[in-house]
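Hello,

Our lab assistant flagged a job as stuck in the queue for most of the afternoon. It eventually completed. Since we weren't sure the result was trustworthy after the delay, we are filing this so someone can double-check. Below is the sequence as submitted and the structure that was eventually returned. Let us know if re-running is recommended.
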Amino acid sequence: MHIVVVGEDLDRADEFKTLLADFGLDWTIDWLAEAPSLDADAATFDVFVCGLRPGSASGPELLARVAAKRPQAVRILLLDESPDEAGIDIAQGVDGAHRVLGRPLDPDELVAAVESVVDLRELLDSEELKRTLGRINTLPPPPKLYLQLTRLLRDEGASNTMIASALSQDPAIAAKVLRLCNSAYFSGGREISDMRSAVNRLGHQALLRLVLTIEAFGGPGLGNSREREAMQDRALRASNLARRLLPGPSAELAATASLLAEIGRLLPGVSAGSEGEEGPHYAEAGAYLLGLWGLPMPIVEAVAYQKTPGKMRTGGFWVTGAVHVATALVAEEEPDDEYLRAVGMADRLPQWREMLEPAEQPSGD
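-- returned structure --
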């Protein structure tokens, strides 16, 4: 395993090599002032670690380059406890990382982060999972408008008028956005009747989640409209709760992952984990689909481990923990008490229950 750490305290290099050797790991680690070349003939690496300002380029920019040139490398972003970097898109950096760790870098956390990403890749490389999904003639397509809006919102010059115009290109989705915008989840008391007002009311991140909900659950797959509405209701409630459980730069990751937690139920041949059911669990199948869509790895991982957060090697309460709690409470299930105690969050559960929004009544078929 070859690890590259860019832009961190070079005086820690020897210390870190000794600590990793104490773990009995045959890993090499290079501490660099600037990012290495990513040309095709340049030396390869397995893990890339950087902060928000690792050198002449920003951390999010470097992570994006690594994702494009070295897609198999594990990407880790280091953040201070209260990150505040003018001119840097922290959310883009979080989206582009497999893991977000605190600064200064801790060897235990680094080892756990790398090994947990490897574990996830092995989980999604299951032969049963590949066979089941391989028998599906047509997998649900990637959420085209959501991905288009995501790219648009990364442009600092994008205006609400431009965003509203992009939404209006798909009248069916635009109509559903307006409908949900006026629902109990988003309504501010005044009816919204045009896309620009919807964008102004919702804000960009809430709008993205809304479009993703419509595209993910709007196609064929579930039997009738009542079932689709019930799934959409659970998705929105879990998303809103998860965003509040995990404040800071990772809140939107938790919200999006919770929104997509049940996406695997749309796939034929998967199970809900009940006794006697055959086929891969919908959580793993959903994570596999999101990986095909190219969604950020923290979202894929949270969907995969939503029912079994204790299987993850990494400690702490991050995206997967928020998704686990939010989806469990929405489903009126008990979150994993052993896991919550292990990450020091068990005493927060009563407060989290109070945050849960009531379910909307279905409108019928």
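-- support follow-up --
The delay was a queue issue, not a problem with the job. The result is valid. The domain at 130-140+219-355 is CATH 1.10.3210 (Hypothetical protein af1432). The first helix runs from residue 13 to 22.
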